[in-house]
Amino acid sequence: MAQTWLVVGLGNPGPQYELTRHNVGQLVVDELADRRSERFSAHKGNARVAETWLRPGGPKVVLAKPNSFMNVSGGPVSALAKYYGVDPEHVIVIHDELDIPFDTVKLKIGGGHGGHNGVRDVAKALGTPDFPRVRVGIGRPPGRQDPADWVLDPFSSADRKQLPLLLSDAADAVEKLIDEGLLAAQQKHHAPRA
Q1: pLDDT tens digit sequence for 86-121
Q2: What are the boundaries of each domain within the chain?
Q3: Which reaction does it catalyse (predicted)?
Q4: Which of 22, 43, 95, 189 is catalytic?
Q5: Is 22 among the residues known to form the active site?
Q6: CA-CA 20 to 30 A from 185: which of 77, 106, 131, 179?
């Protein structure tokens, strides 16, 4: 039987956070669900999930948006991984990344959390940092704005114009990672745009 993948978009619950930079992970999961005409439903693992397939015939993909706040994302991620029998190497976490320019997508497995409290909490709950990550660049705040405020701000109007392309790129990266592995996904998404 093909391995099930758990694809988690990190973010904060509630409409006031929906279109903020910190919720870009959940926006990518929404894009993946939209591509498959899937809707999310409540799950006992304190998350909303959509069970689907990468393509007809497999592999199975569980798209998830934790109902918890970002800093305590680990509990729902760990509960879902247990429920679906998914090992950490098949848990893809999609999150915002300050140290990557806006409109850029990077992938990696393992490593540090780079000060990202959601990633830190997931690593703690899974008992390992060795899970794939799709890091969606939101860039650093201008001037002296506190990064903690910046991530909770809505995207600027200029960024909102570019956002659909960024979400599409990140969703493509997730699909390539599942389909062809990390290296192929990195080669496609880390290359400079033509």
Answers
A1: 999 999 999 999 999 998 999 999 999 988 999 999
A2: 5-189
A3: an N-acyl-L-alpha-aminoacyl-tRNA + H2O = an N-acyl-L-amino acid + a tRNA + H(+)
A4: 22
A5: yes
A6: 77
